[in-house]
Amino acid sequence: MTTESSCLFAVVDKESEQREEIERKTKRDFASPQKTNGPSENTSTRMDTNDDPDEDHLTSYDIQLSIQESIEASKTVLYPESFRRLELPGRHSQSWYTSRCFCLTEFVPLSSQNRKLVEAIKQGHILELQEYVKYKYAMDEADEKGWFPLHEAVVQPIQQILEIVLDASYKTLWEFKTCDGETPLTLAVKAGLVENVRTLLEKGVWPNTKNDKGETPLLIAVKRGSYDMVSTLIKHNTSLDQPCVKRWSAMHEAAKQGRKDIIALLLRHGGNVHLRDGFGVTPLGVAAEFGHCDVLEHLIHKGGDVLALADDGASVLFEAAGGGNPDCISLLLEYGGSGNVPNRAGHLPIHRAAYEGHYLALKYLIPVTSKNAIRKSGLTPIHSAADGQNAQCLELLIENGFDVNTLLADHISQSYDDERKTALYFAVSNNDVRCTEVLLAAGADPNLDPLNCLLVAVRANNYEIVRLLLSHGANVNCYFMHVNDTRFPSVIQYALNDEVMLRLLLNNGYQVEMCFDCMHGDIFGNSFVWSEIEEEVLPGWTSCVIKDNPFCEFITVPWMKHLVGKVTRVLIDYMDYVPLCAKLKSALEVQREWPEIRQILENPCSLKHLCRLKIRRLMGLQRLCQPASIEKLPLPPAIQRYILFKEYDLYGQELKLT
After folding, report:
1. Could you tell me the maximum CA-CA distance found in the chain, to the nearest angstrom?
2. Its GO biological process terms (predicted)?
C-alpha cells in the first residue's frame, strides 16, 4: 500500500471515529428522560452559574440536535476523498464498491458551483472553467449517473478543457467509474477522441483499466476501428494480450473486424497469434468465420495454426464453412486444412456449409470430403441442408450423388423425441415446401420414419406438403407406431375439424371403413351393445380399450361430440354401405346433419358411385396416387376426375388444379 493511500485511510478512519463518537453521545443524552425527583450535582452547579436553567438546557439541546442532523445528513453525502482509496489499479472490488457508492446511495443535489463547472466544460468556456476549478469541492461531486466533472471533460473535444480539469482533480479520481462502469479513459476511447486519450495517458492514467464489461481501452479502440487510437495506446505500454471477461482479446476483435492493418500493428509490437477466446477459438478461426481472407492469409504467414481446434473440436476450416467465404476455404485447403476433421458432435465442415446454405463453399467441400468420414459422422449433408431449409444446396448435393434416403445413425435419431431418421422429415417438420418438393422429386421415401411424415404435415395443417406427400406414395393409412391408441388409421384424428384436409385424405385412399369397424354392431348393421365379458374375448382385440379405441368411442367424447354429424356426413360420401353402431347413431340423432344422413342411408347408392369404388379397389392405392397411372387409363378426362373424387377436392379447387 502506498504512503498516500495509508494517509487517506488514517484520515478517513479518524473522521469516522469522531462522527461515531458524537452520534453515540447524542443518542445517549436524548434516549432517556431527565430525572425530576431531585436535583443532581450537575444541576446544582448549573443553577449556581445561570439563573435560567431552562434556557441553557434548550440551547444545549439545539446544539446537539444540530450535530445529530449533520451526522444523519452526512450518511447520504458522497465523499470521493474517502472512497478514492478503494479505486486503486488492479483491485477487483473497486468497481463494485464505487458503483454502490455512487448509484445506490441516496443522491444529494449538486452544488451551484458544480453545475456551473459542468456547464462550462460542456460549452467549452475555458476562462470560466479556470475560475470554477478553484472550488475543489465542486470537482468532487458526482451527478445521478456517477459522472464527475472529469468524466464530462474526457468526452468533449477541446483538449485544453481536459487538461484544466485533469490538473484540478485528485489523481485518485482518474480511475473512478460511472454508474455504467466506465472509467475516464474508456469513455474517451468510446468517444473516439484520440487527443484526449493521449492527454490522459501522458498524465499517467493507467492504460489497462477495464470497464465493468471487462473491456480494456485497447479492445474498445479496435471495436471502433481506430488505428490511431490503437497506436496511441500501444505507445503508452498498454497490454496487447489482455483479454476481457470472456477472454476475447484485441487480436480476436481485429480479426473479426477484418482490420489487417491493426492486426499487423499488434503483431509488430508483440501480439500473440495463438491466443484463444472463451471457446478456444484462435484469431485465425475468427477471421475464417467472418470471411476475411486477407486477414486469414496474413495470420497464417505470421505463424497461425491452420490445424488448431477449438474447445468443441471445431477446426479452422469448420469455422470457415460457417462463414461461407469460398476464398477462405480454398486458402485453408491450400495450407493443409482437412475437410475430414469432425468436431466433438461429429459434424464435418461440409455439414456446416450445407446447414448454413453456403452454396459456393459447399462446392469446394464436396470433393475434399470422404464418404467414409460422412458415414462415421452419422448424418449426411442432405440432412443438414434440409434442416437448414436450403433447397439450392440440396439440389447440389443430389447432383453429386448423395442419397436422399440415407437414415440418421441410431444415436443421433434417438436424441430427438420423435426419433426422426430421414432428411424428408426435417423438411416436413420445418414446413418447408420447396425442400420437400426437391427431396420427393429425387426419390425420397415418405414412409421411413417412426412417426410418418404425413402425420406431421397434417397436424401442421400444411395442405401443400400433404398433397406432395400423398402424390409421392405417403401411406395415408399409417399408424403412429409408438403410441397407437386407435382402431382406425391415425391421420384422420388431426383433420376432423378441417373439411379441406379431411377430404384431401379421403380422396387419396384413406380406409374410411375402419372408422365404422367397432364392437357395437354386426356386419349387417344390426345395432346392439356387447357385454363386458364378450368384449374381452373378441378375436383380434385386446382387453385394453385404450389401445384399440374405435372411432365411435373417439368421436363421441364430450369435447368432440359436436363434430360427429359433420364428420360422418363427409365420410359416407366415400362408402357404399355404412354400418352405424348404436353408440354412433345415438350421438348422430341429436345433430342437425342427422336428417340428411338418414336419408342417404335409407336409399341405395348410385351405380356410378359403386363403380367408382370398385375401380379404385381394383387399381390399388399406389396407382391411384400416381397421376401418370391414371392418365394411362383408356377413359375420358371427366371419368378420370370422377374416379379421383375431384368433385370433393376442395384444396385443388382453391388452387384451380381440378
Report:
1. 138
2. intracellular signal transduction; protein ubiquitination
pTM: 0.75
Beta bridge partners of 309: 315
Grid cell in block for residue 616: 379404385
CA neighbor of 450 nearest in space, from 486, 488, 490: 490
| Architecture label for domain 380-475 | Alpha Horseshoe (1.25)
Phi–psi pair at 253, nearest 5 degrees:
-65, -40
How does pLDDT run across 166-175, given as a tens digit for each residue?
A: 988 888 888 8
What whole-number distance in Å separates Cα of residue 474 and Cα of residue 491?
11
Residue among 276, 223, 215, 206 nearest 245 (CA): 215
Strand partners, 509: none
Contacts of 597 (CB under 8 A, 6+ apart): 565, 568, 569, 572, 588
Q: What is the pLDDT of residues 309-319, one digit of tens each?
A: 999 999 999 99
Q: How many alpha carbons fall within 13 Å on the CB side of residue 606?
A: 5
Cα-to-chain-centroid distance, residue 53: 76
- Alpha-helix residue ranges (DSSP H) falling in 75-110: 80-83, 94-99
Residues in Cβ contact with 481 at an 8 Å cutoff, skipping those fewer than 6 apart:
450, 451
565 vs 561: CA distance, rounded Å? 8
Q: Does an H or E element contain 14, and which?
A: helix 3-31
Residues forming a β-bridge with 527 = 521
- DSSP assigned state of 378: T
Query: How far is residue 634 from each of residues 371, 508, 639, 647, 658, measured CA to CA in Å?
Result: 47, 21, 10, 20, 19
List the one residue out of 539, 493, 535, 538 whose CA is nearest residue 514: 493
Residue 303: strand, helix, or coil: coil
DSSP state letter for 418: T
pLDDT tens string 8-38: 434 334 444 444 454 454 444 434 444 334 4
Q: What is the mean pLDDT of residues 321-329?
A: 96
Bridge partners (DSSP) of residue 521 are 527
DSSP string, 486-532: BSS-GGGGGSTT-HHHHHHHHHTT--GGGGG--TTB-TT--B----H
Q: What percent of the chain has pLDDT over 90?
A: 50
* 383-433 pLDDT per residue, tens: 999 999 999 999 999 999 999 999 999 999 999 999 999 999 999 999 999
For residue range 462-487, list pLDDT tens digits in order: 999 999 999 999 999 988 766 557 78
Contact 179, 213 (CB under 8 A): no
CATH code given to domain 273-377: 1.25.40.20
Rg (CA), the chain: 42
Q: What is the mean pLDDT of residues 99-124?
A: 72
Spatial distance between the Cα atoms of 444 and 190, rounded to a whole number of angstroms: 55
Question: Which helix (H) or strand (E) element contains residue 615?
Answer: helix 607-619
C-beta separation of 404 from 432 below 8 A: no
Residues 152-165, buried b or exposed e (16+ Cβ, 10 A)?
bbbbbebeebbbbb
Rounded to whole angstroms, the Cα distance separating 295 from 308 reads 17
- The CA distance from 643 to 639, in Å, is 6
Q: What was the pLDDT predicted at 103?
A: 54
Of the candidate ranges 144-148, 161-165, 366-370, 644-648, the one whose mean pLDDT is the lowest: 644-648
Number of helices followed by number of strands (H, E) in the chain: 41, 0
Cα separation, 466 vs 489, whole angstroms = 16
